[in-house]
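Q: Convert this sequence to structure tokens.
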Amino acid sequence: MSYSLLVLLAITAPSTDSKGANPQADLATAIPHALSLIQADEFEQFIQHYAVPDELEKILKQKTVAELVRGFAKDHAARVTLLLEEIQDKKPEMSADGNIAQYPIGLKNFSRHKIVFEKIGGLWYLRN
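A:
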């Protein structure tokens, strides 16, 4: 492979963090990354990165991305921000196979008592 081709591949590679790792590969980085996307109003990026792929595919058969983003921004972003802030420094309860991480939620006025992440293909997604 020629040097110029290697340079071109390096320039066009998908972006990751400064260490070259995908933040979704580890819960310790996935949660702060997800939180930062929401806090920056990058709702589409949050959804693209953290929605379970199969579930997102089903939803997008009924709604456009723009509709999904508007609904998330209006109805869910503030609540998800609070939930992620609540769990970001906690240790989850892990499934035996290590692919499900459950964080108990101690916030009042929330219908859910836990937030669940699932590891699919080596990356963490928000299950609920």
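The helical segments are 3-12, 27-39, 43-50, 53-59, 65-75, 77-87.
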